[in-house]
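[09:14] KT: can someone run the structure on this one? pasting the chain below
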Amino acid sequence: MMRKTFIIGILLIFAAGTAAAQDVLTLESAIEIGLANNYGINIAKNSLKIADNNATPGNAGMLPKIDVNAGYAHQFSSAKQSTTTGNSLDNPNANSDLFTAGINLNWTLFDGLKMFISYDKLKKLEEIGDLNVKISVENTLAGIMAAYYDIIRLEKVTQIIEEQVGISQFRLELAKLKYETGSGSELEFLKARVELNSDIANLSNQKTVFINSLATLNELMARDVTSKFNVKDTIFLHYQLNYDSLRAGMREANRNLLLYNRNMEVSSLNLKSARAVQWPSVGLTTGVNYLNNQSEANFINYNRNFGAVIGVSAYMNIFNGLNMQRDVRNARISYATSELEMKQLENKLDAQLLKIYNQYLNQMELVLFEKENVQLARKNMEIAKESFEVGSISSLQLREIQKNLLDANTRLVEAEFRTKLTETALLLISGKLLR
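[09:31] RB: done, structure tokens below
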């Protein structure tokens, strides 16, 4: 038994040395890596680049359109003509050459201000793209933080179970000693061995869950999922989150709320755009054109024309089956719907904030309560071990006290973890997570 204990000790020392050799990944580093590599964020950034490229005066129709054209044609024909004056032309091999060139400008001067409305809409879509990037960043940030704290939680639970294995090992050694000296029963010895094996199996399962949690964080950071690392072993809690401050921040900075607000503004611009179609459209046309025509198929065998042209055009639709009026009505309904969706989201966020804040207060109380329970359970365990050594309590009683310590430690770790999750959720919903 002493040899087995020695081997376990050597393995623990080796494991500790291996862990120390691994890099310690701080939460700040995990966030930095994740925000740089996360696929969802980079996809959102690419969408933002497209929206930024689209938000130009030219795409809104505010700039003129200039076209250059040139052409050449050679025609083979047979020509036969006569005129009332008696002139005639009969040429079976009449060829002609035609060369044209020109540059033309078309510019919409007025379209019911639709071009300006379109430009404002493109800028709003750019803002929506930026908000989508920030929402993706916030969600990734919250996910990384939750995964990081989960690793700390699982590591602490693993350490708790390892402590339980040590206590069970102590029980087994003492039960074996009593059995060999005749002061204890074989039943107690076998029972202690079964419970040790159960604790070791539980520890093995817990280590598997812990290793998988490392892969989860690596996935969120978009790096090799097999990368090994250690994390900080403490979850720091905020003790001064104020509900009124959080609610005010949510109204001003919640990205989803801001996104709905931008969508409502886009709906308003769509309504203005639908109304603008009812106005006339005025355009300017100007250009320079060149024509050179040489033909053997006409009495005039050479024609050259070069000059500028300028003109103004106006267009207004008088009737198109009442579709313009229908578009305006639909745009008005869409705007009203966006207002309702905005109010619905505000109400939903208010409810979520209140519920999460109540959970946060409850978890903070549980943390303080469970810290006291752990102290009492640990002191009780120390007394129980001494009592068990002298035979004052049974193995069954020691096991019950051991379980109480395990439960108290586990509840404290879980309470700290849930408190941190609710704290992160509060910072996320209030727009304070991403400064």
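[09:33] KT: thanks! The chain has nine helices and six strands.
[09:34] RB: yep, looked fine to me
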